[in-house]
């Protein structure tokens, strides 16, 4: 039996589209910031008395269909370790599930850490990153803290994340605006596949990401929060342009998303430097220098209420312990 704690990450340069659905090999590289405020803890116990895998999230036992992706990762662990037993998986999400707040990233990173350790495997962080990827693409980055790059690679061995700057030593913060924490109607998985297959702009997106990866790494090296924020904002808008231009077109935004975007732009016009990004969901994340926090919180509290704002600093990498 083992337990792992992994934190969510929010992509500054987005992952949007797979080259290989089975292995979850992405179409492009990506880069993210791990957050300290949102995380998942997961305990895995391989038990010879069990007659099937038993998966519980937030004390709710999943049906066989709901547990498919979890069982898939457990099967890979059994294959690697030679263990034959079924497992009991207990996962607690300190993140709203399937609302565009990267709950699957922390969940599958924690699962990879707990399951592999419980099975007696001593995986390196790189191999943990590869294993987490098999559950959810973005989970590959949640093995590490701080600023993390996922190298797309070409196969299972070469597609993994690595840290760019694990201990972030400049005052970047991210404010999550919880617009809607309900489960989204279009999953990330189906949304990105539709974009890859039907958006006429998908080829241009690959080039956008290649350029943005070079630019944001320079900005990180220079500790230039404004440049990091600007690149992340433009990259997010271009990712969401793929959803609008798919066939049929769709969007993760709602009216409140657009209200928050306008508020961030208004703050910027008033000289308060801050930038927005959105994943596959309506929730907005705001990137800024810690010194600007109070002005941003004040403005957005007036729109959505302070209880729907969560301030987050860069978070740590995975922690695993044996029970």
UniProtKB/TrEMBL annotation:
Its EC number is 4.1.1.33. The keyword ATP-binding applies. Keywords: ATP-binding, Lipid biosynthesis, Lipid metabolism, Lyase, Nucleotide-binding. Gene3D superfamilies: 3.30.230.10, GHMP kinase, C-terminal domain. Residues 6-161 form the Diphosphomevalonate decarboxylase-like N-terminal domain. InterPro entries: GHMP_kinase_C_sf, Mev_decarb, Mev_diP_decarb, MVD-like_N, Mvd1_C, Ribosomal_Su5_D2-typ_SF, Ribsml_uS5_D2-typ_fold_subgr. One of its GO terms (molecular function) is diphosphomevalonate decarboxylase activity. It is an enzyme of class 4 (lyase). Residues 175-305 form the Mvd1 C-terminal domain. It holds the Pfam family MVD-like_N. The keyword Lipid metabolism applies. NCBIfam families: mevDPdecarb. Belongs to the diphosphomevalonate decarboxylase family. This is diphosphomevalonate decarboxylase. It comes from Limosilactobacillus agrestis. The lineage of its organism: Bacteria, Bacillati, Bacillota, Bacilli, Lactobacillales. The gene is mvaD.
């Amino acid at each position: 039996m083992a337990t792992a704690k992994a934190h969510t990450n929010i992509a500054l340069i987005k992952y949007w589209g797979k080259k290989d659905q089975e292995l979850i090999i992405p179409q492009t590289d990506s880069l993210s910031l791990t957050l300290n405020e949102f995380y998942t803890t997961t305990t895995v116990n391989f038990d010879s008395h069990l007659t099937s895998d038993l998966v519980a999230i937030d004390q709710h036992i999943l049906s066989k269909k709901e547990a498919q992706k979890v069982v898939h990762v457990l099967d890979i662990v059994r294959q690697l370790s030679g263990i034959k037993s079924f497992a009991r998986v207990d996962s607690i999400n300190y993140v709203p599930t399937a609302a565009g707040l990267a709950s699957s990233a922390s969940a599958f990173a924690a699962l990879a850490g707990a399951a592999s350790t419980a099975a007696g495997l001593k995986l390196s962080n790189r191999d943990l990153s590869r294993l987490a990827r098999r559950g959810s693409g973005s989970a590959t980055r949640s093995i590490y803290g701080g600023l993390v790059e996922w190298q797309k690679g070409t196969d299972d061995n070469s597609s993994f994340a690595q840290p760019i700057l694990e201990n972030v030593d400049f005052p970047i913060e991210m404010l999550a605006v919880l617009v809607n924490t309900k489960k989204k109607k279009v999953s990330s998985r189906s949304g990105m596949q539709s974009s890859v297959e039907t958006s006429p702009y998908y080829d241009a997106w690959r080039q956008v990401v290649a350029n943005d990866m070079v630019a944001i790494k320079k900005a990180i090296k220079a500790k230039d929060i404004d440049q990091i924020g600007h690149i992340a904002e433009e990259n997010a808008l271009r990712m969401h342009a793929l959803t609008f231009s798919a066939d049929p077109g769709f969007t993760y935004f709602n009216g409140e998303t657009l209200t928050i975007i306008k508020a961030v732009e208004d703050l910027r016009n008033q000289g308060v430097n801050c930038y927005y990004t959105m994943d596959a969901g309506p929730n907005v994340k705001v990137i800024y220098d810690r010194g600007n926090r109070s002005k941003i919180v004040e403005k957005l509290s007036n729109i959505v209420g302070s209880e729907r704002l969560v301030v987050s600093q860069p978070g740590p990498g995975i922690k695993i312990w044996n029970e």
